[in-house]
Amino acid sequence: MQHDCAKTYWMKAAFFRARMPEVTFEDFKNEILIIDLKTGNYHSLRKSGAHVWRLLVDGRSVNDCVAWLTDFYKTDREIIATDTRRFIEDLEKMALLEPISVPESTTETKPPLQSETYEAPSIQSYGDLQDLLLLDPIHEVVPESGWPHRREEA
């Protein structure tokens, strides 16, 4: 029964996008760096995780992601589907992705030139720069010193 509910959910939430404007990201080819401007945490995605993110923000559906990863990694489709869906659920729980009904645009996602060994997609999260990332550079700085020197409250 639980499997049917999950299947229905994934059919409804076929497309996702980065939760804007709270989330910003940069693609460095070997890594996607995501910054959550609301929490000050930043996250790193590599290998299959970076591919999933790239595919989703390029307007591809969850099923397209699974097909692309299956073709690229030459790995069992069910394993990739399970891992991909779990990964997307994690990104949603962290409020980094949000479901959308239709993609805003679609871009062709090209596979990397070199092959990789499949590893389940994962996210590495860091909170060590929260103070800097949450600092409001216009309102919370010392006027004479500027950013990133935080104003001390009296």
Compile the SSE list and pairings.
Layout (H helix, E strand, L loop, with lengths): L1 H11 L2 E4 L4 E5 L3 E6 L5 E5 H11 L4 H12 L3 H17 L3 E4 L22 E4 L3 H5 L20
Antiparallel strand pairs: 1-5, 2-3, 3-4, 4-6
Helix pairs in contact: 2-3, 3-4
Oligomer: single chain
- Structure summary, number of beta strands: 6
Low-pLDDT residue intervals, each spanning 5 or more residues: 1-11
Q: Provide the helix percentage.
A: 25-40%
- Give the class from helix and strand content and strand pairing: alpha+beta
Q: Secondary-structure element sequence?
A: HEEEEHHHEEH
Largest sheet: 4 strands, antiparallel
Strand line-up across the major sheet: 2-3-4-6
Number of DSSP helical runs: 5
Distance between the termini: 58 Å
Task: Give an overview of the whole structure.
Helices cover 36% and strands 18% of the residues. The chain has 154 residues and is an alpha+beta fold. The protein has a four-stranded antiparallel beta sheet, with helices on one face. The termini are far apart. Residues 1-11 have low confidence and may be disordered.
Can you describe this structure in just a few lines?
By secondary structure, the protein is an alpha+beta fold. The protein contains 5 helices and 6 strands; from the N terminus they run αββββαααββα. Helix 2 packs antiparallel against helix 3 and helix 3 (62-73) packs across helix 4 (77-93).
